[in-house]
Design a protein that fits this description.
One of its GO terms (molecular function) is ATP binding. One of its GO terms (cellular component) is cytosol. Residues 176-308 form the Mvd1 C-terminal domain. The chain has 322 residues and is of the alpha+beta class. It folds into two domains: 5-167, Ribosomal Protein S5, domain 2; 173-313, Alpha-Beta Plaits (2-Layer Sandwich). It is 36% helix and 25% strand. The chain is built from eight helices and 14 strands. It has helices spanning 69-82, 104-119, 126-134, 189-199, 203-222, 226-245, 256-270, 294-305, and strands at 5-17, 22-24, 29-30, 34-50, 58-61, 64-65, 88-95, 148-152, 161-164, 173-178, 275-278, 285-290, 310-313, 320-321. Strands 1, 4, 5, 6, 7, 8, 9 and 14 form an eight-stranded mixed beta sheet that branches. Strands 11-12-10-13 form a four-stranded antiparallel beta sheet. A hairpin with a 2-residue loop joins β5 (58-61) and β6. The radius of gyration is 19 Å and the shape is globular. The two termini are 22 Å apart.
Length: 322
Amino acid sequence: MNATTYTARAHTNIALIKYWGKKDEELILPMNNSLSLTLDRFYTETSVTFDEQLKDDLFLLDGSRENGNKVSKFLDIVRKKAEINIKAKVISQNHVPSTAGLASSASAYAALALAASKAAGLSLDKKELSRLARRGSGSACRSIYGGLVEWQKGTDDQTSFAYPLEMPNNFEITMVALVVNADYKKISSRAGMKRVVETSPYYPAWVQTAAKDLKNIKQAIVERDFETFGEIAEENAMKMHALNMSAHPHFNYLEPNSIKAMQIVEKLRLEGVSCYYTLDAGPNVKVICLKRDVKVIAGTLSDSFGQEKVLVAGPGPAAHLI
């Protein structure tokens, strides 16, 4: 085959109803459905070239050669689908603080799924791309789409994929992200959720309440009820972090500045600003709000933490070739 290079851009997403726990580690099948918002501010660009001259896969991230074992394992899935046995060069540029709770793996594997499948000669539809991206990182299946996205847990590889939800008119959801710590996490999402599933006595209740949260937040979206939407997202995030503290051995992604930011959001809410926080597997706080309130929220967080730590994002687009 000709060594054609394809480059894809995919945006990260923030889960509003969390995915936290797998029922199948190899296929990355989740225990519960989840819902997310794809963001315009944070993205990954990845170029893939299958080249018969290469003896091994080559992976460059942000200009540095990296251990590409996980990437090669993912490329093996693509190679099997395309019925080829050619090594690839993967060049990836991350415009997301890596592994710090801003879902960089979601944008990374969504971009890799699109670029690699095209470079391998495949022409996959969105559902097939979502299923493929899931094999690299669960949340990546949601980054194939823009805006609000639901990941259907499914029962096997064929039935576990994401699909977009309609965003109501004038429902101008915005996110103000506070980067508390952009360093690598001590416990990866994968390791953390595995420990929680295996050891938390509260995990069965999480699966039940996550399903209820999803149903209720979707109803709030339909009704354009932002307050209920935000309350459900905030409570769902806190339940996820409570699970981590109930695991054995227990662990915690929150840092003192995470708590401080959460208290600031609660104070703003008491003052009449509609804003709600959520956190993924990391210390960074994401504030869900409406576009009209961004200035006051970003300004208040900047006063406490510094303007360089505060990033504003709106709904982002689907993964696409560039």
